[in-house]
Amino acid sequence: MTGKDIIKITLNLVIVYLIGGLILAAVYAKTAPIIFRNDENAKKQALKALMPDADDIKKAGDWTVHEKHAEYYIAKKGNNTIGYIVQSFGKGYSSYINTLVAVNKDFKVQKISILSHGETPGLGDEIMADYFQGQFKGKDFDHLKVLKTDTTEYVQAISGATISSRAVTEDAVKNGVSELISVYRDNKAGEAAKTEGGAAHGTGN
């Protein structure tokens, strides 16, 4: 094989790779907006399913968990706030578990929805089962804890998948609830204390 042959083959390969790259870029440019819309529609449906009594669910803010961007929402019926929903991530056995958590105004969990995960089939993926997710109903922050024994007060671990169980319960859900408490309860309490302190100070003058 001569030097010219090698150059010719190299040029042909470069052209093939360039054409392939252009085709992939074109396909991505066309499908990316569709995938984004589908993801957004799926999220909207999940939000509505989490808070079916709400007639308005609006994004209220952003936060970061495990260096991942997440969002939280406020749910209203008429002019009344009936609860909050937060997106959160838990670090599981083989994936980050993308989770939505709905709470009432007392910050007790009403329902959870797992949007995506990559946990082990037949073990960790049991986090999708109704029997596991149903345990979260009515749990407050202090009771978001996994036990390996039978329990109704806390959350019972999935047999053989304690890491995945904890990733959802003590990581995704608990951190999400903590964020909502910090934003909506603690901030309001702090603002109320400032207001009362200012009023008392004014009266003293």
- The average pLDDT value, as a whole number, equals 87
Derived structural class: alpha+beta
Number of helices: 3
- Radius of gyration, rounded? 24 Å
User: Helix and strand succession?
Assistant: HEEEEEHEEH
**Sheet with the most strands, sense and barrel status:** 5 strands, antiparallel
The helix fraction, in percent, is 40-55%
Number of strands: 7
Count of the domains: 2
First-last Cα distance: 99 Å
Overall geometry: elongated
List keywords for this structure.
205 residues, alpha+beta, 2 domains, five-stranded antiparallel sheet, elongated
Layout of helices and strands:
Elements: H1 3-50, E1 56-65, E2 68-77, E3 80-91, E4 96-104, E5 109-116, H2 130-133, E6 146-147, E7 155-156, H3 162-204
Parallel strand pairs: 6-7
Antiparallel strand pairs: 1-2, 2-3, 3-4, 4-5
Tell me what the structure shows.
The chain folds into two domains: 1-41; 51-204, no CATH class. Helices cover 46% and strands 26% of the residues. The protein has helices at 3-50, 130-133, 162-204, and strands at 56-65, 68-77, 80-91, 96-104, 109-116, 146-147, 155-156. A five-stranded antiparallel sheet has the order 1-2-3-4-5. Strands 6-7 form a two-stranded parallel sheet. Strand 2 and strand 3 (80-91) form a beta hairpin. The mean pLDDT is 87.
